[in-house]
Design a protein that fits this description.
about 350 residues; alpha/beta; Rossmann fold; 2 domains; 5-stranded parallel β-sheet; 4-stranded parallel β-sheet; 15 helices; globular; binds iron/sulfur cluster
Length: about 350
Amino acid sequence: MHPMAALQTIIPPAAHPVGEVPPIEEEQLTPDQRDALKARIKQLMKEQDAVLVAHYYTAGEMQDLAIETGGCVSDSLEMARFGHASKAKTIIVAGVRFMGETAKILNPEKRVLMPDLHAECSLDLSCPADEFAAFCDRHPDRTVVVYANTSAAVKARADWMVTSSIAVPVVQHLKDQGEKIIWAPDRYLGDYVQKTTGADMVLWQGSCVVHEKFKADGIRELKAQHPEAAILVHPESPAEVVALADVVGSTTQLIKAVQQLPNPSFIVATDIGIFHKMREVAPNKLLLEAPSGGRGATCISCAHCPWMAMNWLSRLEQALTTGHNEIHVPAEVGARAVHSINRMLEFAGQAGINVRGKSGD
Ligand code: SF4
């Protein structure tokens, strides 16, 4: 046991199941259909003064479309910030729902659309706002720190929202102030932060269905076959996987590692959607998928988020045509949620920490 582990209280798993993880359904398009859809989307975006921001885990063609139309491909916080900096009246978020909500919280005056409102996140789903509020009410002496992968309502209940790149400095700061912490929702990232800082934390027991499936044994075997490979791990992965990493970091940090490290190959433990950007920035490097939970046997997600895979071009075209799939956040919820986000940004500014492009997912 880690010497600091005694300070960590694990709350029982939430009574609610995370729910069914949907099967991954990739969009099947002929090249002609794809071209026609992209042309129609571009026309609609122009007519509606819209900008497209896409997450690294979405399909490569969605990422390409974002770049071709002057948008961005990034992580959740940078997606919201890009939309804020843009003069466009509509922000299209190709990602999952909490990313759409974060974009709306930071841009309440803009219309935020998503290709599919069913694109959820197992971390967000694991942490219903009412149950989380009741839990926080039972620990009034603790400061509430939540990860970016949460609903607007959970962010509204929090004192701080943090990204993976700033979680450790914020919790260390709070610990130095003598504060005790509630952390939600990712238990693996919470465990990593607790072990690093030694803070007194209670952890909500959420997890990412993609990252928790990576297997340390499989990674060791792959490393034995590719001893020159660096191991890159997102901190939503289990501790035994994080322990093998040469680099632990957010999506943006892992992409930079592929670009900057001298290794000819990399074992990558995060969603395989990220390979699109990694191949673009480092075309000569060999990228290897970290083994997950027994492909073809027990693997559910197979290193690909089923909700991110819902971002189809045809659904984006429909959202723009019909105006459906708009994200709404009640004004009073947004006003409270923005406080927890701004607190992190102010802390980062004072501490000289750059959280730009280093969000949680
Ligand atoms: S990859 Fe995991 S953390 Fe990211 S959106 Fe999917 S379920 Fe959520």
